[in-house]
Design brief:
2 helices; alpha+beta; 8 strands; Signal recognition particle alu RNA binding heterodimer, srp9/1; 2,3-Dihydroxybiphenyl 1,2-Dioxygenase, domain 1; 8-stranded mixed beta sheet; 122 residues
Length: 122
């Protein structure tokens, strides 16, 4: 069954967002290597209520947005459904090391979301 596995907060000033979300929610943030401006967010909770991981990324457009990543069984089938229902594929598929193949989409009302098909479906 498809389910949300990741979220991203895209903002013009990621350092400020890291400070805000870390202070407000107690999340830890780890900066990934340059050249991208990306911080992995990890909740400070027990495994029983761990929630989903997230990230903060610098916005190239200068606009803020939040998106979710939904894990699916088949990118081919799900992308066909997205476009068949009036949505669009915004960015081509790309591998996410250690996770799977990722694609960015937009629904018919302009809401961004991502899909990921795990490398190993086992």
């Amino acid at each position: 069954m498809a389910h949300v596995v990741h979220f991203e907060i895209s903002v013009p000033n990621p350092e400020q967002a890291v400070e805000f979300y870390s202070d407000v929610f107690g999340w830890s943030a780890e900066k990934l290597p340059d050249p991208i401006q990306y911080w992995q967010l990890r909740p400070s909770v027990t495994p029983a209520n761990a929630g989903i991981p997230g990230g903060i990324i610098g916005s190239k457009s200068g606009r803020s947005r939040t998106s979710v990543t939904i894990q699916v069984e088949s990118l081919d089938e799900t992308c066909a459904k997205v476009t068949g229902m009036g949505g669009s594929i915004v960015a081509e598929r790309r591998p996410v090391p250690g996770f799977g193949i990722h694609v960015l989409c937009k629904d018919p009302q302009g809401v961004f979301f991502a899909l990921i098909e795990p490398f190993s479906k086992a």
